Every structure is written in C-alpha cells, then in structure tokens.
Amino acid sequence: MAPLPMLVGTRDALMKAVRVAALVGLALLPAAHLAGQEATGRAGAVTIGGRLHTQFATTSVDDGPPADIFQRRARLEVDIRLGDRLDARVMPDFAGGRTALQDAYLRFRVAPALRFSLGQFKRAFDLFELDSSTELPLVERDGRIPGLSDCPGVGSICSYSRLTEDLGFAGRDAGVRLDGRLTETVSYEATITNGEGINVRDVNEGKSYSARVTVAATDRLAVGIGAALHDYFFDTPTAETDYATALSVDAKLGRYRRGPLLMGSLVWGDNWLLAEDAGDTPPRFLTAQILGAWYQPMANEDGLLAGFEPMARLSLGDPDGDSADDGGILFTPGLHVYFRNAFCEGAGCSRNRLGVNLDIYSPSQGSTQTSLKIMSYLYF
C-alpha cells in the first residue's frame, strides 16, 4: 500500500467533497445575520448563541467505513446573567440525532481571584482541550482515522488528544471548579469531578482532581503547567478505587486569527486502562503535540472572505513506556478559510470558516493510513 493511498477516496467520495464545498457558502451565510441574541428572562439577562459543525470524512483503511457527511456538533449555547456576581451556562448538543448535555453550570464570582462553579464543564488540565473547537484550527483534536483502532488501552490512534481524553485527564465532567486571576499575569483553575465523563453518575467513592496554573510571560506568550489525579476501579467483588496521575507542560505563542500561532504541550502519566488488575501499577504513557498556524487577513473589506490560515500539527503518542513499537506519529497539514462577519469587526470576531485537514498516521508497526476531513464552522 502506498504511504498516501488516497486523498479523497473513491469517485463518489470526491463528488461528495465537491458538494460539501459548494454548500458551505449556504451553510455559513446565515451567520452574518446571527449574533449572540440577548433577551430578558424571568430573572436575568439571557444570551443565546450556538455552533454548527458539518464534517465530511474519508479513510484509507481497507474495509473501513465509507466517506461520510455528518453533523459533528450542533450546539445551542445559553448564557444567563443574574447579576455582577452570578451567571450560568447551559449548552446541549443535538448532533447525531440525540441530545447530550455539554456545559451546564452555575458560577459565583466571589472576587477576581476566586470564582466558584458547580455543574458540568471541562477538567482543568489540557491546553488543547480547554481551548474551544470554535477557535482551534483543527478539524479533529485526536486526528482519528475512521476504521482504525489499534492504540493499546484507548483504541483509535495513539495521538495526543486521544490519550488525554480517553484516559480521563481531559474533557468534560461533573463536579466543582475554582478559578481566577491571582495577578495581572498569573491565573489558575482547579476542578474536583466524578471522573466518569459527561452525563454519567459516579460509580465509586473516589473523585478526580485537576489543576493548572498559567503565566502570561508576555502579551503573546503564555506558559502553563498542570497536574491530574484520576480515580478508577475494576468492577470486581472486592473492588477498590485506584488513582492514576498525569502531568503536563504547555506553551502558547500568539493569538487566534492574529498572525502566527504556535502551541505545544507535553503530557505524561499512568495509562490505567492497561492495568491488568486492581492494585497493579499501570504502565506510563507519554505524548506530545505541536500546532503551528499563520492567519493572513484579506484586504477586501467588502468581500466574502476575511482571511485564510495554513496550519500543521505534529502529534506523538506512546501508550506504554514498557513496550516497544506500540505508539505512533500523527501529522496533519491543512488550511482554514474564514468568512467575513458583517456584524463584527476585527481579527477576534469571525469564527465562521471552512477547514480542510489531511490526517496522516504512521504507527510504530503497520502501514500509514490517512483521512481527509472537510468541515464547515457556523458560529453565532
């Protein structure tokens, strides 16, 4: 099999990709007339927004799923302001024809250095997870290859986000969160959660703990460190709660849609999904990721396009430090084209775009596989 066995797939897949590109304009044009709408509710000010991400994906995997068009995200964001010190958010997702609650929390603003939230939100750990999908110039954080699932413990591919998310160190969970700004340059975030993921009740007596501190070294450079303690247990008659640890170091140089952007993160910890029995010491995993992008604005203020952004991502994943040849390398070149927002000016405004990523995964053993992904991003 050639290293890049297909870019678009079959002729039918190519035709689907062309139709997706042709319909993107229709999918995004309404965003020019939709801004976050604020209204007065029974007891506060309510702002309604949302996002709709439609994806086309192919795979080079033999006997893998066919090229597909589907709703990746269809979320309604409802922000409620009950005063200067109290607000809330509810964000359901309707993608896939079913409703799954994402964010749902009530937040108390005690002081600039202390905010307290109760509900469901993202764990305080991973830079690439904490930043919104509406901002990241990536189609898929984990770079999944449809039909490929050979990474020990977590399945799919051995990429950065696949390891951090499926090992329960990153992603949404229910619990309590503390965050705030200690100085002009230092901020923090800490969470205590069930450890089971979104919309799942706790199954043991343990809780998961995550915390990170971010230092803004300059106006464009931020450095962060994080630590996580994830509870897990094997469902046996003598089940006892065990804990897996993880540490992270990350940096972000630049800002979204403001010229060059460079993000990098290194995470290591326990791959508890590979523990054979309760009380066993799990093997250690190691993963790293670098993302580079360069946003170029368009000079024509009356045109449809606001700018374009070439990008590249390199992700390394080793799920088991005690075993050789079980990891992989993910490389993702791509391009994002941004559409102008008639109701908002400036580089920080428009998140409406068309993104194209080619995920190229090379496992330590086996052949290289690819997946072409095209996604339209509607944000209002």
How many whole angstroms does the radius of gyration measure?
Answer: 21 Å
Shape: globular
Structural category:
mainly beta
Widest sheet: strand ordering: 2-3-4-5-6-7-8-9-10-11-12-13-15-16-17-18
How far is the first residue's CA from the last residue's CA?
43 Å
Counting DSSP H or I runs of 4 or more residues, the number of helices is 3
The amount of helix comes to: under 10%
- Percentage of residues in DSSP E strands: over 45%
Number of strands: 18
Question: Can you write the helix and strand succession as a string?
Answer: HEEEEEEHHEEEEEEEEEEEE
Mean pLDDT across the residues is: 89
The protein's oligomeric status is: single chain
The low-pLDDT segments are 1-35
- What's the main sheet like? 16 strands, antiparallel, barrel
Task: Explain what you see.
Strands 2-3-4-5-6-7-8-9-10-11-12-13-15-16-17-18 form a 16-stranded antiparallel β-barrel. The model is unreliable at 1-35 (pLDDT under 50). The radius of gyration is 21 Å and the shape is globular. It is 8% helix and 48% strand. The protein contains three helices and 18 strands. It is mostly beta strands and 380 residues long.
